Prior knowledge:
The protein has 464 residues and is an alpha+beta fold. Helix content is 32%, strand content 17%. It has helices spanning 4-14, 73-87, 100-103, 120-129, 133-144, 147-160, 183-196, 202-205, 222-225, 265-281, 308-311, 339-350, 353-356, 382-394, 404-415, and strands spanning 47-51, 57-61, 95-97, 117-119, 208-211, 214-217, 229-237, 241-250, 253-262, 329-336, 361-366, 373-380, 400-402. The strands form four sheets. A five-stranded antiparallel β-sheet has the order 2-1-9-8-7, sandwiched between helices. Helix 2 (73-87) packs parallel to helix 5 (133-144).
Amino acid sequence: xxxxxxxxxxLALLGLGLAAPALAQADSDDDAVTETTPAxxxxxxxxxxxxxxxxxxxxxxxAGEPWYPASLSKLMTAYVVFRHLRDGTLKLxxxxxxxxxxxxxxxxxxxxxxxxxxxxxxxxxxxxxYSANDMAYVLAEAASGSTxxxxxxxxxxxxxxxxxxTHFQNPNGLFDPRQLTxxxxxxxxxxxxLAEFPEYQGYFAQPSVKVGARTLMNRNSLIRVNPEAxxxxxxxxxxxxxxxxxxxxxxxxxxxxxxxxxxxxGNRVALAQKLLAQGFQTPAGSQATRVAQIADQPLGxxxxxxxxxxxxxxxxxATLTSALDLGGWGVSFGIYDTALLADMALRGRMVGPVVxxxxxxxxxxxxxxxxxxxxxxWGQEAITSLNLCTKLRAxxxxxxxxxxxxFRQMALAAVAEQPPAPPPVVEGADSAKAKxxxxxxxxxxxxxxxxxxxxxxxxxxxxx
Length: 464
């Protein structure tokens, strides 16, 4: 049950006194936010800054546009975990285990071994301070028994809060074309977190977290340059650019700024800093629009922009999946002349309502014999693939069912012509520029020079 104070905040965010599911609705064109860019601020993606207590919007641009949230997803992960703590199904001092799935998540991560345990409290600290991708899975599995059930809870919470442009596929925000949000939705979620769970606000502003002998600094550098900052969360994958949710309090007034798609970590902090400064200079009560009255783009209505070519120039916009990695049943959304066209088709198809909630992975696969590039999903059950293509064909959209035998044939044909894999790009670390991993050079074998005896090590001397 919601507390009385939280219910009042939620009604204030609405500005209309409606129930929570109506958060996504804008009553009329008169309620729409006027999109103006504050002076001396250069924004490349959507943003919004508003009063956390009243929802009063001070400035916004494209705030209802869908975007890839990256690690901002961990705000919803925290929200669901906080609810489990409140109802007693989790406890802060409870030891929870690390599974192989959690351990296998890419950086940023804590790296605890499979079978090791960590307290819920420390897992939350590493999640929200250091943005640990493995701890998102550890917490999800502890709270709900499986990641699948936890993600269903995340999406259920998003629906209850009226986050109409938001959908989750995983608890840590690593890229999936179906993992979407908007500046408006993330802003509403941030305000709800602060209002409903004031006892956990310290996690968002904690300057560092100690794990064993390591001291890990908060990814959000705004808390180190702005003494009024209350923290919140950073996010980065190549597709999203640099995202930030920042809260700050001045003379008892708290504002929340959401910045999506900045071109660097420094730029997102500078933009948030300027938005907050302008917001505090704007008299309270001078704006009529509430953040919940910003109209969201419905899911599937718009494909998010892709920031890869801007923030990760060394990474191809379309990352190819090897035919050797395909399995189960799947579908093909068509064959295209270039990987970029196939990637655009894939991202567009996967945000549609028919595909978004379907199980399986998606990617672009180069067909054997350089026969083109396919936009595909795989790892499905037969009934899922058959139903998916039936629905898409009814919409006159291209779709072919791919049985396991088709994937095996593709894999066999691809073995002989498999190109060397490019170096991986480190994503999800919420930190500075994404860099490819250094190439692994084979060690040259040392041979003795002609006429030179091989040295014998003295007692106690290590062999080189």
